[in-house]
């Protein structure tokens, strides 16, 4: 089945996700995978500064507070920003699987408007793995981990090799990342077979 027609539900026979034995313990703050990442980078002034933690099994919890720079309508978060928060939280499942994967497909339900100043409490879970395809779902709630649901997403991530980034990224940033010991450490943490 080609891209665009790929179902977001794991097919029958998909493998159950397995938490990597060296995955960070539940509760561990994961930290940014890249300082300039729009989702989690601490050095990215326009970003979400989303903070993700390892959960139980293959799950992640994350928080992100909507800033004035994230508005779509007056006083409300932009939908694309909320989709980014879901994408980032889902992508953080990579830390627990210890694979490198990129978003292939992301479908978002916007259930409630999210005001500026609200904190979105997100939770993502891996639902199954079929070859290189990683199926995952996420939910975001307003202001409390058990607050009202604002957004939901289902996604398929596709496992890639590290060279997906070195081949495709702009050379300036790739060169800088490869010279950064912190970035090398992150890359190693994702490589199952270094
Ligand atoms: C490093 C850790 C980072 C952690 C945090 C990250 C958070 C943010 C995550 C992101 O936002 S990543 C950025 C957004 N995503 C991208 O830029 C990906 C752009 N797309 C691509 O580079 C390629 O299309 C992709 C690598 C996803 C797939 O190309 P391939 O040539 O490797 O795939 P191929 O055609 O061999 O297909 C392999 C399988 O995946 C399926 N597939 C491929 N593209 C798909 C797609 N787009 N959607 C759904 N399924 C897809 C395809 O049907 C097939 O399934 P089957 O094995 O069952 O036949």
From TrEMBL:
| Alphabetically ordered keywords of this record | Apoptosis, Cell membrane, Cell projection, Cytoplasm, Fatty acid metabolism, Hydrolase, Lipid metabolism, Membrane, Transit peptide
Q: What is its EC number?
A: 3.1.2.2
State the source organism's domain of life.
Bacteria
* InterPro entries registered for this protein in UniProt: HotDog_dom_sf, THEM4/THEM5_acyl-CoA_thioest, Thioestr_dom
- Keyword Ion transport present in the record's keywords: the answer is no
Q: What is the lineage of its organism?
A: Bacteria, Bacillati, Actinomycetota, Actinomycetes, Kitasatosporales
Domain Thioesterase residue range list: 75-134
Q: Is Translocase tagged as a keyword?
A: no
- Where found in the cell? Cell projection, Ruffle membrane; Cytoplasm; Membrane
How the protein sits in the membrane? Peripheral membrane protein
Per the record, the similarity remark reads: Belongs to the THEM4/THEM5 thioesterase family.
Supply the CDD domains for this chain: PaaI_thioesterase (cd03443)
Reaction it catalyzes: (5Z,8Z,11Z,14Z)-eicosatetraenoyl-CoA + H2O = (5Z,8Z,11Z,14Z)-eicosatetraenoate + CoA + H(+); octanoyl-CoA + H2O = octanoate + CoA + H(+); dodecanoyl-CoA + H2O = dodecanoate + CoA + H(+); (9Z)-octadecenoyl-CoA + H2O = (9Z)-octadecenoate + CoA + H(+)
User: Where does this protein chiefly localize?
Assistant: membrane
Q: Where is this region: Disordered?
A: 1-27
Gene3D superfamilies in UniProt: Hotdog Thioesterase
What is the protein name for this chain? Acyl-coenzyme A thioesterase THEM4
